[in-house]
Amino acid sequence: MNAPQIPANAPNLYMVGFMGTGKSVIGSKVAQYLKMPFLDSDHFIEESEAMSIPKIFENFGEAHFRELERKFIEQDQPKGGAVISCGGGLVTNPELLTQIKKVGIVVVLYASVDTIYSRIAHDSHRPLMKVADPRQKIEELLGQREPIYKEAGIGIMTDGYSIHEVVEKVTRVYLDHLN
Predict the structure, then answer these.
(1) What would the pLDDT profile of 27-37 be if each residue is shown by its tens digit?
(2) Segment 4-42, tens digit of pLDDT
(3) How much of the chain is in helix, strand and coil states, percent to nearest 5?
(4) Residues 6, 35 contacting (CB under 8 angstroms)
(5) What is the dihedral of CA 149, 152, 157, 163, to 10 degrees?
């Protein structure tokens, strides 16, 4: 099956959801299939700050990182025709969520606490997981963020599906919303 031609002025596709749900992996594969540019907000911030996210948190705190996310959405992101993976907390800022919903299609990836924990338990690149009980922190943060994620966009569960199956679902959602 040939990928459709996506115009450069098409709306962005925003991949949002909790850490470990597959936003970067799925987003990059969707972008590759649709021949669209892919941008990961966390990677962009790391490159523009010449510092890892854990170091940003350590040196400047979470509030500063959230301001860098705001700058990314307001000034640095492509205006259209791109797949953008957003950090898990980006849409917890209502202004940023409103902005991305105005200019793009938002897909929320979900996974169970068990799946998230298994995917990120040994990932030292997750500053919010540097706690005594990461599983409990996942449950706590998910409890806070889930109502926001439910309002953010079209939800897709990733548990029990292959990467290919999730890519197909996300692609279908995006293409359906273009028509």
Answers:
(1) 999 999 999 99
(2) 888 878 999 999 999 889 999 999 999 999 999 999 999
(3) 60, 15, 30
(4) yes
(5) -120
* SS3 label, residue 9: coil
The pTM for the full model equals: 0.90
**Cβ atoms < 10 Å from Cβ of 105:** 21
DSSP, collapsed to helix, strand or coil, labels residue 141 as helix
Q: Give CA angle at 39 (150, 18), nearest 5°.
A: 30
Helix 53-60, helix 62-71: angle, nearest 10: 120
Q: In what order do the strands lie in the sheet with 38-40?
A: 38-40, 83-85, 12-17, 104-110, 154-157
Element (H, E) at 83: strand 83-85
13 with 111: CB under 8 angstroms? Answer: no
Cα gap 76→82, rounded to integer Å: 12
Q: Are 159 and 118 in contact (CB under 8 A)?
A: no
Q: What are phi and psi of 85, to 5 degrees?
A: -90, 120
